[in-house]
Design brief:
This protein has 663 residues and is α+β, with helices and mostly antiparallel strands. Strands 2, 4, 5, 10, 15, 16, 17 and 19 form an eight-stranded antiparallel sheet that branches. Strands 3, 6, 7, 11, 12, 13, 14 and 18 form an eight-stranded antiparallel sheet that branches. It is globular. The chain crosses the membrane at residues 12-38, 289-311.
Length: 663
């Protein structure tokens, strides 16, 4: 019986749309037999001549002696594009087919001095794309501050990046080859010594396999060879989910404050897809016939189903707000790519029924377990929210909704989620080296200085993405050393987004209620309950000081009753910062980096939020690209009035201790 069926509104809408699409497809089939097919695209160019029309040039790029010169070498901040004049089919919506493609090209980058940048890129982008404004330098002629990691992007690129930009490039490896998806940050990368190969010609092969969804790149040099470096790279990606059906293909090269010469000498390209295009004189008449039939029938069907949906929604209108929120979240996530929904049975099996032997840690809202998914052949960390924790469930919903939208190499990846009845579970990628606090204050192996400094830059990069580079500003609200996770190579992965808040980039401090962990909370946040980028920066500053000193911000393990910020500020005033360095380091540290790290930590933890830097300003100083700030010799006092009402009006969520793998 129809009345006994439990049909969700989203399912009903999908059913209606699917029926209408089926009807349209059936009516269009007779006309498809008249459509000619465009053959797949293949070309080979061994010489680039100025009178040829098969290459389009933008910016500084131009043909020169049979090759393409991309940049005016005597000028800074330049961009050049060279693209193929015809559009390229990547996939076909009529057949659902995706193309294989292969491209080969030869290029060289000649470095003129010890300072050089920024690199050459092969890219696929929407037809009609233009050079973005302010895209020189590290943006490689393809992005700018607005588009560097935007969800609106539709671009795939392989970059030969000669300059390390700490805001988005892999930390500590210098120049690199990377494969990028919709972002200036590389999804996969490997070290590549650009200066070693200067002036030599590189032969590059890029292949995409539509069956395995594998994009691979390999390169070799005609004269020089470095056996210690990788010379290939691959990345799993479904181009149908990233690119439009038709794209432009080509190259971009850019310089910034430093310059280098980029030259393309040879290019060939081949794809396998044939696409139907209607060029017959009856096209307009065919369309009118189809529309005249489909539209009335479609409207009738859609109207009937929408009426049914409205009835069903009224029937389910009495659901609780929490159930409604979870159902909405399920619908949103299951329609998109990214985290997947797991059954409770899957996760119980993965963790040996959540056994104590698998437990990694326990916090205020639940426990974290180590698990293994046989079908994915991957280790996971499983966070199980306590069944009686109302606040934990609220944070569960927040975390799934926020982190499932974020993509950055320094953020923990959410693998999936589960809420069956009263069980609320989050599934993350497993971090073999645990949390930062376990190395600084616990029994895990102590960290070398170079690893600590790299961790600081990685955490800064994550915060820059959250505050400035994503489409909305994300205020984390709980940055602390126990939420800084470390992968097998000690790369930073910032986690625990249960307290995060989304705000517009132009929006000021937001009254959210007090949340976070004592010792990391900015004074004005404690007073007013207003979360902001500045309060996140304060927490970041405290973590920097913990990294340098190996001492907790507050609580057990502190060598005095004085707070960490106050103690280090006192040493700064007397010129004795070096006395605060972690004893476990001995003399094995870079004194200039130590000074920079601690002074930036104090700057970020300044009691007056108006005197704190943005995270971008902090990064420039950490990378020794900007001078150290001049801070007061004595620690200032906050310049605001305490407002008890603003705190008591909101529900607090404050943690007093750190746990391995988060709260």
């Amino acid at each position: 019986m129809l009345s006994d069926c439990n049909i969700s509104p989203c399912f009903s809408i999908s059913m209606a749309i699917g029926f209408i699409n089926l009807l349209q497809s059936s009516l269009l089939i007779p006309f498809l037999f008249t459509l000619p097919f465009v053959t797949s695209l293949n070309f080979q160019i061994s010489r680039f001549d100025s009178n040829a029309s098969n290459i389009l040039y933008l910016g500084d790029a131009k043909p020169s002696v049979g090759a393409i010169e991309f940049n005016l070498i005597n000028y800074i901040n330049r961009v050049g594009w060279a693209t193929y004049a015809e559009k390229v089919p990547i996939w076909d919506s009529r057949t659902g087919r995706l193309t294989d493609f292969s491209t080969r090209f030869s290029f060289d980058i000649s470095i003129q001095s010890s300072d050089y940048g920024h690199g050459l890129v092969f890219f696929l982008a929407p037809v009609g794309s233009q050079i973005p404004l302010n895209s020189a330098g590290g943006f490689l002629g393809l992005f700018n501050t607005t588009t560097s990691d935007s969800s609106q992007n539709q671009i795939i690129l392989v970059e030969f990046d000669t300059f390390e930009n700490p805001e988005w490039d892999p930390t500590g490896i210098g120049s690199h080859v990377g494969i990028n998806e919709n972002s200036i940050s590389s999804a996969n990368y490997t070290r590549w010594n650009a200066s070693f190969y200067s002036g030599d010609t590189a032969d590059v092969v890029i292949n995409y396999n539509a069956t395995t969804k594998n994009l691979s790149v390999s390169w070799s040099y005609q004269k020089t060879n470095n056996p210690r470096e990788n010379s290939s790279l691959s990345y799993q990606i479904d181009l149908m989910t990233v690119l439009p059906e038709w794209v432009m293909v080509g190259f971009s090269a850019a310089t910034g404050q430093y310059v280098e010469r980029h030259t393309l000498q040879y290019w060939e390209f081949g794809s396998s897809l044939t696409v139907a295009e209607d060029t017959s004189g009856n096209k307009a008449r065919n369309v009118r016939i189809v529309v005249s039939i489909v539209v009335p029938v479609g409207v009738l069907i859609a109207g009937t189903i929408i009426a049914f949906i409205i009835w069903k929604r009224k029937k389910h209108a009495k659901r609780t707000p929490e159930t409604t929120n979870l159902t909405s979240m399920n619908d949103d996530l299951e329609r998109g790519a990214g985290p997947r929904r797991f059954s409770y049975t899957d996760l119980a099996s993965a963790t040996n029924n959540f056994s104590e032997q698998r437990k990694l840690g326990e916090g205020g809202f639940g426990a974290v377990y180590r698990g293994y998914l046989n079908d994915l052949d991957v280790e996971i960390a499983v966070k199980r929210i306590s069944s009686g924790s109302k606040q934990g469930r609220k944070e569960y919903v927040t975390e799934v909704k926020v982190i499932s939208q974020l993509r950055h190499r320094n953020l923990v990846q959410l693998v999936g989620w589960c809420h069956d009845k009263n069980d609320f579970i989050l599934v993350y990628e497993f971090m073999p080296n645990g949390s930062l606090d376990s190395h600084l204050f616990g029994r895990r192996s102590p960290l070398t200085w170079s690893v600590r400094y790299r961790i600081s830059l990685g955490l800064a990069s994550a915060l820059l993405y959250l505050h400035e580079e994503w489409e909305q500003c994300v205020v984390h609200r709980d940055i602390k050393s126990s939420n800084v996770m470390l992968d097998s190579s000690f790369n930073v992965k910032l986690g625990d987004f249960g307290l995060a808040k989304l705000m517009d980039h132009e929006q000021g401090p937001n009254t959210t209620g007090l949340a976070g962990t004592i010792g990391y909370l900015a004074p004005e946040y404690i007073s007013t309950g207003r979360a902001s980028k500045e309060s996140d920066v304060y927490s970041f500053g405290v973590v920097l000081l913990e990294i340098a000193t190996g001492r907790k911000s507050v609580g057990p393990g502190r060598k005095s009753d004085m707070g960490l910020v106050e103690w280090i500020w006192g040493l700064y005033g007397t010129g004795e910062l070096i006395l605060a360095v972690d004893d476990k380091l001995g003399k094995e540290f870079d004194e200039k980096q130590v000074e920079s790290l601690m002074i930036v930590g104090l700057w970020c933890a300044h009691p007056d939020y108006n005197s704190r830097p943005s995270i971008r300003q902090a990064i420039h100083v950490l990378c020794l690209e900007s001078p150290l700030p001049n801070l007061p010799v004595k620690m200032p006092v906050p310049t605001y009035q305490v407002s008890l009402s603003s705190v008591s009006s909101s529900e607090p969520s404050v943690t007093y201790s750190s746990m391995d793998l988060g709260r």
